[in-house]
Amino acid sequence: MRLDPVTLEILGNKVAAAAEEMCFTLQRTGRTLYVKETADFACALAGLDGTFFAYPRSIGVSGFVALDCLPAIAAVGELEPGDVVLTNDPYRSVGLATHLPDLHLIEPYFHDGRIVAYGWAFVHCSDVGGRVPSSISPVNHEIFQEGLQIPPVKLVRKGRMNADVELLFRANSRTPDANMGDIRAMLAALATGRRRVEGLIAQHGVGAFLAGQADLLDYAAEKARRVLRRVPDGVYRFSDFLDDDAVTSLPVRLALALTVRDGTVTLDFTGTDPQVAAAMNVPSHGEPHAWLTLRVLALVNTLDPTAPLNRGLLRHVAIVAPKGSLVNPEHPAAVGVRHAAAIRVNDLLNGALGLALPETMPAASSGLVVPLVVAEATEEAAPNVQVVEPMIGGTGARYGADGVDGRDSGISNLANNPVETVEAEVGIEVLRYALRPDSGGAGRWRGGSGLDLTFRVLGEGSQVLARGLERLRFRPWGMRGGHPGAPTEFVLNPGTPGERRFGKIDLLPVARGDVVSLRTAGAGGYGDPAERDPGLVLADVRRGLVSAEAARAVYGVVLADGAVDATETARLRADLPPRGPAHDHGRERATYEQVFTADLLDRLNAALFRLPLARRTAMRRAIHARVLADLPGAFPGHEDVPTRTHRARLVAEIEALEGRVHP
Question: What residue ranges carry the coiled-coil annotation (predicted)?
Answer without folding.
Answer: none
